Amino acid sequence: MPEMPEVQGLADFLDGRITGVRIVRATVANIAALKTYDPPIEALREASVTGVSRHGKFIDIATDAGHLVFHLAKAGWLRWYDTLPSTIIRPGRTPIALRVALSDGSGFDLTEAGTKKSLAVYVVRAPEDVPGIARLGPDPLDPAFTRDVFTGLLAGKRTQIKGCLRDQAVIAGIGNAYSDEILHAARMSPYALAAGLGPDDVDRLYAAMIETLTDAVATASGKPPADLKDAKRRGMRVHARRGEACPVCGDTVRSVFFADRSLEYCPTCQTGGKPLADRRLSRLLK
């Protein structure tokens, strides 16, 4: 799933290429992906792009006729073309959910792999009209997101810190992969309770979060969409590296499996050497 660094990379890429360009047409190939009807998507025809920004994991293409907002979900991606193909999109026979043609001949597709379709497209008058954006917590790379703000968000939460970091209503933009990386950098168990963290724990976690995300955004900066996924994989130290050696201590990276995802961690660095039980057992091995 694209997370904040990759989404920021995509937003920066688009902002540098389509700001000031007109949208010639926006063609929906998967009608289930379009979540709004007022304004209609046809309202974007001949609209000029005024800028592209990010809200959590949402990309917001602002135009003089409204906002085209999309969320790539778990298996979505953006495919850019300097010269948009002239092939006709046939709904139901393509992974393409949306095609946007631009006045300079360029354009992009939003694609989604797999059978579970979650990619979402919105045409709205303001980004806050998208329910997912309206519910977002603060952005961790916003200068206003201080250590004290972070402490306040964690206070009283009797939930595991892994889930807290992934909760978009608490902190915007962090998903499964970067929460693994942040917790590894902070030397913290994903099962630690947010409300039980002491001041030193919070300091360590806050510093790890800011450093991990800042580095990842810098890595994504300037890369075209086709290169962002590989750059993300290369930057991972524990996520999706089950069975490999931890780059810090050399212990074997392990996984905990859930119904539709897994988490990765290093026992030596994060859990005092104790392996975590599969979450289907819902307990820590003693």
UniProtKB/TrEMBL annotation:
PANTHER family: FORMAMIDOPYRIMIDINE-DNA GLYCOSYLASE. The keyword Protease does not apply. The keyword Zinc-finger applies. Keywords: DNA damage, DNA repair, DNA-binding, Glycosidase, Hydrolase, Lyase, Metal-binding, Multifunctional enzyme, Zinc, Zinc-finger. Belongs to the FPG family. Residues 2-119 form the Formamidopyrimidine-DNA glycosylase catalytic domain. Residues 237-271 form the FPG-type domain. This is Fpg/Nei family DNA glycosylase. It comes from Microbacterium elymi.
